[in-house]
Design a protein that fits this description.
Elements (H helix, E strand, L loop, with lengths): L9 E9 L2 E9 L4 E5 L6 H9 L6 E6 L2 E6 L6 E3 L7 E4 L11 H11 L4 H14 L15 H14 L4 E5 L7 H18 L3 E4 L3 H7 L2 E6 L2 E7 H6 L4 H7 L2 E7 L5 E4 L5 E4 L20 E6 L4 E5 L15 E12 L2 E6 L7 E4 H7 L6 E6 L5 E4 L2
Parallel strand pairs: 3-9, 3-10, 7-8, 8-9
Antiparallel strand pairs: 1-2, 1-4, 4-5, 5-6, 10-11, 12-13, 12-15, 13-14, 15-21, 16-20, 17-18, 17-20, 18-19
Helix pairs in contact: 2-3, 2-4, 3-4, 4-5
């Protein structure tokens, strides 16, 4: 019995304030589900976790875990609940392992069970069981200073889960690890969360964490949930430039057209019309004439853009009157994996990636005028609420 079989879903519907900054959240995380939370620095991720963990009281709203209310603020003379951190049964794991330096590994992991009233022998037995599950049993008599970063994080995971949390909060737990160790830790976290059916929130800047571990993703921006849904949907069609940059795609915002595409205004006042092969918006709703003029966005990969010289036959067709085509002036050249990334004066927010050989053949240079074409099959369109 791990103790987490009794875990219920997390319901967090609250507003919290730190000074003038306010975070508003409405989240539900089911048993066995891992929700990834992404957002730029200052978006409110730390405030979100602090409120759920009990380090910060909400200004209003409720945090509920199964049938237990961890916090409630109704305002005025209404009910007020603030369950102490030690009674919440919430495990928090961050970038730093925060192991007790004066204790060996076994006693570190046994600390949680001991704090919950278990006897020394039972707590040590429980601790060894968790060390075996994370593949660190041979480290039981070492002190934290004798461990590598990956070993410390394994022990920290064991210590967190040995305390039998009913909710797990992960705050960038892989950020300080090297690539092979991070991959191992992701696999371990994924396996343990599935085995224990613990509802889990993972705060991360790395889309790989969300892709590998999460069922859903939430995007936090300026203290509010800007997007929430399956990982494939959120990363496949981001709602914010931050997530578009993480996912490595271009996000072009504009207004829906009657043809099922998106009209995007250029810096020079010209319009770029981006039209996908299938005119399907958010939730499978077709983008047709009824949606014309509504806020919408188009997404495509920087590598999906074909570039040709203006002098080539047929390049004249790449004018602003045709869908998925524009003529642009190269404004910036940067290195990209396997080639070059460029942007244009007309659409500085849209990146174009070219293989090295293609860049050489085009004789790329700032100020060059080129024709750009995006295949309709590479474009997805989403109407905004």
């Amino acid at each position: 019995m791990t103790g987490v079989e009794a875990s219920g879903a997390l319901v967090a519907e609250f507003a919290s304030e730190r000074g003038a900054f306010r975070v508003e959240a409405s989240l539900r995380v089911e048993r066995g589900e891992l929700l990834a939370v992404l957002g730029p620095n200052g978006s409110g991720k730390s405030t979100l976790l602090a409120t759920i963990a009990g380090h910060l009281a909400p200004t209003e709203g409720v945090v509920r875990l199964g049938d237990r209310e961890l916090a409630r603020r109704d305002g005025g003379a209404g009910a007020t609940i603030d369950l102490p951190v030690a009674e919440r049964r919430v495990g928090l794991l961050g970038q730093e392992s925060l192991l007790f330096r004066h204790l060996d590994v076994l006693e570190n992991v046994a600390f949680g069970p001991r704090a919950q009233g278990r006897g020394r022998s039972a707590a040590r037995l429980d601790a060894m069981t968790w060390l075996e599950r994370v593949g660190a049993a041979e480290l039981s008599r070492r002190r934290p200073a004798e461990l590598s970063g990956g070993q410390q994080q394994r022990v920290a995971i064991a210590r967190t889960l040995a305390a039998r949390p009913e909710l797990l909060l992960l705050d960038e737990p892989f950020a300080a690890l090297d690539v092979p160790t991070a991959a191992t830790m992701r696999r371990l976290i994924g396996e343990l969360c599935a085995q224990t059916a613990t509802p889990t929130i993972l705060v991360t800047h790395d889309p790989l964490d969300a892709i590998v571990l999460a069922q859903r993703a939430a995007i936090l921006h300026d203290g509010r949930i800007a997007q929430l849904g399956p990982v494939a949907e959120v990363l496949g069609h981001p709602a914010t430039p931050f997530v578009a940059a993480l996912a490595g795609v271009n996000l072009a915002t504009g207004v829906a057209t009657g043809s099922g595409g998106v009209a995007v205004s250029g810096a020079d006042g010209s319009l770029l019309r981006l039209v996908p092969s299938e005119h399907v918006g958010d939730g499978g709703r077709p983008l047709g004439p009824a949606a014309a003029g509504a806020p919408a966005s188009a997404v495509f990969s920087p590598a999906a853009v074909h570039v040709s010289p203006l002098g080539e036959a047929g390049a004249a067709a790449s004018d602003s009157m045709m869908a998925n085509r524009w003529i642009g002036t190269v404004s910036l050249l940067q290195p990209a994996p396997g080639g070059v990334r460029l942007t244009t004066e007309e659409h500085p927010g849209l990146a174009v990636d070219l293989p090295g050989a293609a860049a050489v053949a085009l004789e790329l240079r700032p100020g060059a005028r080129l024709a750009f074409i995006v295949a309709a099959a590479e474009i997805s369109v989403r109407e905004h609420a």
